[in-house]
Each structure stands twice: as C-alpha cells, then as structure tokens.
Design a protein that fits this description.
By secondary structure, the protein is an alpha/beta fold. The strands form two sheets. Strands 6-7-8-3-9-10 form a six-stranded mixed beta sheet, with helices on both faces. It has a four-stranded antiparallel beta sheet with strand order 2-1-4-5, with helices on one face. It starts with a strand and ends with a helix. The structure holds adenosine-5'-diphosphate. Adenosine-5'-diphosphate (ADP) binds next to helix 1. The site of adenosine-5'-diphosphate has 11 residues, from helix 1.
C-alpha cells in the first residue's frame, strides 16, 4: 500500500540528508506510528508520500501508483486519493463545518446529490452531526480536528496520513482523536501517523517505525512502543501473557 525503496533526500544547503536510503513497506489496513526526534525526517517522509517533495533517489509506490510517473499537473488529483490530516487543521474559516466537508467533495467532482447524502454521514462518524452549521472558530480544537478528519475521509481514501494530528490538543482530546483514527482504520483505511506522544503510541500497541538522522533505526511490527534510540527498551517482566500485559500497562 505504501512502499519506499532506498529513498534519499537532501535539501539544498543542508550538510546531511533528511532521508538516507529509507525502505519500508506498509500493508493495506495497517496502523503505523512514525516517531523520531525533531529533525529526524518524519515530515520529509510524509511529504514524499504526498509528493510535496521528490526524492533525490529511490522509488515510491503508493496504492499501486509509481510517483515517478505522476506528472505535475496530476499531483492535485493524486493527493485527493489520499486523506491528509494536519496538526493545524487547515479548515476554511469562512465556511461552516458542513461546507468545509462539502467543498472537499465538490473539488473531487462529486455530484450535489451525492454530497448531500455523504456529508451528514461523515459528520455523524466524527460525532459532529449537531455542529454542522457552526464555523471553525466556534469549535474547540478537538472538534476542529474532527472536521478536518471528516473532510479527509469523506472521499473514502484507502490511505490516511496525519502529521502530528494531536500536537495542539490536550490529553483527553488527543485520546478522542486517536480513537477516531482507530475507528477509521477498523473500517479498512491504512493509517500512518507521526507523533511525539509517547502515551498514545504505547497504549495502541501498533506498528512503530523510528527514524533517526534520516534512517529507520527500528521497525517494531507488532505491539510497538515509543522508542527514539537504538538502545534496548527497559526489560519487561514476562510471566504469563496476562501478567506481562498488566506489567506493561503499569509502566505506561
Ligand atoms: P521532522 O519532521 O522529524 O522534525 P524534517 O523532515 O522536518 O524532520 O527534517 C529533517 C531534516 O531536513 C532536518 O535536518 C531539517 O532541518 C531539514 N529540512 C527539512 N525541511 C527543509 C527545507 N525545506 N529546507 C532545508 N532543510 C530542511
């Protein structure tokens, strides 16, 4: 679903690469956290997927599309196939919640009739059915992020990528947003999320990929924990599976 093969990228003027021969394969329906210290290359990797940046070398194939062959004029159309969620929501301030979602569908070429059917459904999915007439500045941060997620999933993308979607949210709202991403993942969407939030990574126990200095230093395929360096994680006391789980939750 997401395939990077030996992808490297160095921005002009930088002395070291932002991505250094990164290879990874994310299967359909996976939920993956991408973690790493600031400057590790997370945003650059996301920008490779959205084709906001192009690699110096290496191959990128997203949903079966080889990005080398996506010409400039087709990039907006390609991006509409992805769901993209940003940390600052990027909502249209002069449009209502309903219109923000409807507008994205209109741009994607959906008919008025289908838009009128789809928007209430996605607003219900994100639990904002009763806020449709409000403007973004009349909503909390968490509600704004839910509108932004509604807008991204309305076109039913196969892949949703989110760069620090909870960076501006408090703890409770963060949990809500991650719960929502998990629900969308349960419906079959492949999800890639960058985050600095150790708790959500450890609680969700999904795949965790760690970047450091532009390289993947760790790829924990299952039950991943938040780990920024190569050094081993603290030892877990393993007795019965249930015991191990309880121990682990206590650590978290
Ligand atoms: P992260 O998202 O993990 O914080 P980034 O992908 O933003 O990391 O950055 C990786 C490296 O690339 C850093 O050294 C950063 O300074 C550099 N970088 C990112 N964007 C640019 C840019 N537009 N021009 C020059 N250097 C950049």
């Amino acid at each position: 679903m997401i395939l990077l093969d030996s992808v490297s990228k160095q921005y002009s003027g930088d002395s070291s690469p932002a991505l250094d021969s990164v290879s990874l394969h994310i299967e359909p329906n996976e939920f993956v956290f991408l973690v790493g210290k600031s400057g590790a290359g997370k945003s650059t990797l996301m920008k490779m997927i959205t084709k906001e940046e192009v690699p110096d070398s290496g191959k990128i194939i997203i949903g079966g599309i080889d990005l080398d062959y996506v010409k400039k004029r087709h990039i907006p159309g390609y991006r509409r196939r992805l769901g993209v969620v940003f940390q600052d929501f990027k909502l249209l301030p002069r449009r209502t919640v309903y219109e923000n979602v409807a507008f994205a569908l209109e741009i994607a070429g959906m008919s008025g009739k289908d838009i009128r059917k789809t928007v209430p459904k996605v607003l219900d999915l994100v639990d904002l059915g009763d806020q449709a007439k409000k403007f973004p500045d009349q909503l909390s941060g968490g509600q704004q992020q839910r509108v932004s997620i509604a807008r991204s999933v309305a076109r039913q993308p196969k892949i949703l990528i989110a760069d620090e979607p909870t960076a501006n949210l408090d703890k409770l709202t963060t949990e809500e947003i991650i719960g929502l991403l998990k629900k969308i993942n349960d419906f079959g969407t492949t999800i890639l999320v960058t985050t600095h939030n150790e708790n959500i990574v450890n609680n969700l126990q999904k795949r965790v990929i760690t970047l450091k200095d532009g390289k993947i230093i760790n790829d924990q395929k299952n039950n991943g924990i938040y780990k920024l360096d190569e050094k081993p994680a603290p030892a877990r006391v393993m007795q019965t599976p249930g015991h191990a789980l309880r121990q682990r939750r206590r650590v978290i």
